[in-house]
């Protein structure tokens, strides 16, 4: 089945966007059941995360008991598949980071340095182990998805027929509350709190992509959170690779050369991620002040951001 790349558009109601993503999800489940390649795994994981961000409600309130069981089953299965995909996707990310580091070490001005050669040997050893683990993990994932494919397809079809997106998810007040929480979370940051912020940024991005693409303020928020997601995600990838390298390889050269280099790169990415979050906080505060004076879209209604501004100001004072 041909892979679909469905993107929300301003002309589609949010229910139709959700249904299109469900259909895309089924196509990607079928593709991963055949082969859990890097592209398929990444695409299915992203669509799964987007679907999990939706707030849903039943189309027919009379079928309450059936719908409750259906929703519980749906979120249980999609959470399982998200975790399984995440384990395989992480190995793909580790190998991409290792490839980028190798490219730097193999540059003409570095490749003849004794330290670079020693680091490169340890890096090649690390990549060999990662490649073998990815091969086995990909096979296990494809087998697991193929085994559950019929149930996943039936479940998603029942969800599409029985559920719709909750109206409050498309409300301007809901979007404003999400932005308020993001500003509060970014007031005081360090390595221990960045991971939670990263999850919130992802959720806001997926909600804005589905519910707010036709709103100028939401589009500007999307630009901001995407840049933060990239910076924080890059730090998270290098931090996880540094820890994983210590678990799967050993030796004097790795301890003396590779591990310190990974720690240095992780520290640099952490600094960049925190700086990106600080810029985000400033830009979001500026944005909500602008939005307070301008309507979000053609209906003339405004986002209720005065509460957001008050929260962000109070949080900033506490963080300082």
Structural class: mainly alpha
Rg is 22 Å
Q: What kind of sheet is the major sheet?
A: 2 strands, antiparallel
Number of extended strands:
2
Description:
The protein contains 10 helices and 2 strands. It is an all-alpha fold. It has 2 domains: 14-107 and 131-165; 171-319. Residues 1-11 and 292-320 have low confidence and may be disordered.
List strands and helices in order, with pairings:
Blueprint: H1 14-34, H2 38-52, E1 56-58, H3 64-105, H4 108-111, H5 114-162, E2 163-165, H6 172-185, H7 191-211, H8 216-248, H9 252-291, H10 306-319
Antiparallel strand pairs: 1-2
Helix pairs in contact: 1-2, 1-5, 2-3, 3-5, 3-8, 5-9, 6-7, 6-10, 7-8, 8-9
């Amino acid at each position: 089945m041909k892979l679909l790349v469905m993107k929300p558009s301003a002309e589609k109601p949010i229910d139709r966007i959700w249904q299109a993503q469900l259909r895309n999800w089924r196509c990607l489940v079928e593709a991963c059941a055949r082969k859990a390649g890097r592209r398929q795994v990444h695409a299915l994981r992203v669509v799964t995360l987007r679907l999990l961000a939706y707030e849903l409600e039943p189309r027919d309130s009379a079928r309450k008991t059936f719908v409750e069981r259906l929703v519980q089953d749906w979120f249980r299965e999609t959470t399982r598949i998200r975790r399984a995909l995440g384990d395989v996707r992480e190995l793909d990310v580790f190998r991409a980071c290792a490839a980028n580091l190798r490219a730097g070490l193999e540059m003409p001005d570095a490749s003849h340095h004794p330290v670079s050669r020693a680091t490169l040997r340890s890096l090649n050893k690390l990549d060999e182990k990662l490649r073998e683990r990815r091969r086995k993990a990909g096979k296990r994932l494809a087998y697991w998805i193929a085994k559950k494919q019929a149930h996943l397809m039936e479940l998603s079809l029942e969800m599409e027929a029985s559920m719709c997106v909750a109206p409050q998810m498309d409300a301007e007040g809901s979007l404003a509350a999400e932005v308020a929480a993001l500003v509060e979370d970014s007031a005081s940051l360090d390595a221990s709190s960045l991971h939670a912020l990263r999850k919130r940024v992802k959720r806001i991005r997926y909600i804005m992509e589905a519910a707010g693409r036709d709103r100028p303020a939401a589009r500007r928020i999307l630009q901001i959170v995407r840049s933060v997601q990239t910076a924080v995600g890059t730090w998270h990838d290098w931090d996880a690779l540094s820890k994983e390298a210590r678990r799967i390889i050993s030796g004097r050269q790795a301890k003396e050369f590779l591990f310190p280099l990974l720690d240095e790169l992780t520290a640099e990415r952490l600094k960049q991620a925190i700086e990106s979050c600080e810029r985000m906080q400033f830009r979001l505060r500026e944005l909500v002040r602008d939005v307070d004076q301008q309507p979000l879209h053609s209906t003339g209604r405004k986002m209720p951001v005065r509460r957001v501004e008050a929260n962000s100001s109070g949080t900033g004072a506490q963080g300082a």
